[in-house]
Amino acid sequence: MALAVSRKERTTNVLGDTDAAAELVAEDVHAWFGTHHVLGPISLDMPANSVTALIGPSGCGKSTFLRIINRMHELVNGAQLAGQIWLNGVDIYGADVRPTDVRRRIGMVFQKPNPFPAMTIAENVLSGLKLSGMKTGDADALVEDCLTRAGLWREVKDRLKKPGGALSGGQQQRLCIARSLAIHPQVLLMDEPCSALDPTSTLRIEDTMRELIKEITIVIVTHNMQQAQRISDYTAFFNVDEGKPGAIVESGTTTHIFEDPSDPRTSDYVHGRFG
Q: Which of 69, 118, 238, 254 is deepest in the core (most CB within 10 A)?
């Protein structure tokens, strides 16, 4: 199923200024695995310099949606999609937009920390640059800057040549964030980044996120309702009914979703009555 593009006047082969604050807009997005329609329709605004939390029970398409945003869904054999994802008004699935360019602008942090175990801490930070074919004039300064922004510099500055895999779980996750920041993304996607971490490490990751939105936009999948309330500005509640694809039931400010939702299913979920 071909990707539909309905607003050609907004499509361009240039993704724009890499330093610009990034707004993401999903418009009528659908996803399939083979003939199985797993997601859609999804339309969602994710404002620049904010945290948007995606909540909902397992299997409703939240992680699939993240992978669509940075063009990973299309790497799955038999995967198909339709709709548009706009990055500052540019369709990231436009004919002249390369997936590698999209992934430089839209970074990803996964549920399980995945530093390269054979690389040192410093090499891990710089690995994204090498994989992307990008260069830096001052590698040491970049390593310090990214680790500082990820909230890890003070803890590792005296052991940058030690293996990244030797760090604790929470430190490894912040190292993965630093690695993503090295390529200067406009957006950072986070797929349950704290699910395997202890409460102290979780709070450090959350503190890091609140600092990062001064410069970038964050979209996070979380099953932790308290976390969604603590760190997000906007929330989208995903759900799936039997025999139907996952879809957004309701979205809005986090205050609205948690304190005055319009749909009773939203209220039931955020108050723990199902999910």
A: 238
Of 101, 118, 121, 123, residue with least CA distance to 12: 101
Residue with tokens 């994710």: 46
**pLDDT, tens digit, for every residue of 186-224?**
999 999 999 989 999 999 999 999 999 999 999 999 999
pTM strictly above 0.85? yes
- Summarised one tens digit per residue, pLDDT across range 100-151 is 899 989 999 998 888 998 899 999 999 988 777 777 778 999 999 999 999 9
CB atoms within 10 A of CB 103: 19
Pick the CATH number of 22-270 from 3.10.20.600, 3.40.50.300, 3.30.450.30, 3.40.50.720: 3.40.50.300
DSSP-assigned states of every residue in 153-174: HHHHTT-TTSBGGGS-HHHHHH
| Residue 61 Rama label (left phi>0; alpha psi -120 to 50; beta) | left
Closest alpha carbon to 42 in 78, 83, 87, 92: 83
Strands (E), 60-159: 79-87, 90-91, 106-109
| Cα Rg of the chain (Å, integer) | 19
For strand 106-109 and strand 217-221, is the pairing parallel, antiparallel, or unpaired? Answer: unpaired
Taking the domains of the chain in order of start, what are their residue ranges?
A: 22-270
Residue closest to 70 by CA, chosen among 39, 106, 27: 106
Q: Which of 200, 208, 201 is nearest to 231 (CA)?
A: 208
Q: What's the gap between Cα 63 and its chain centre?
A: 9
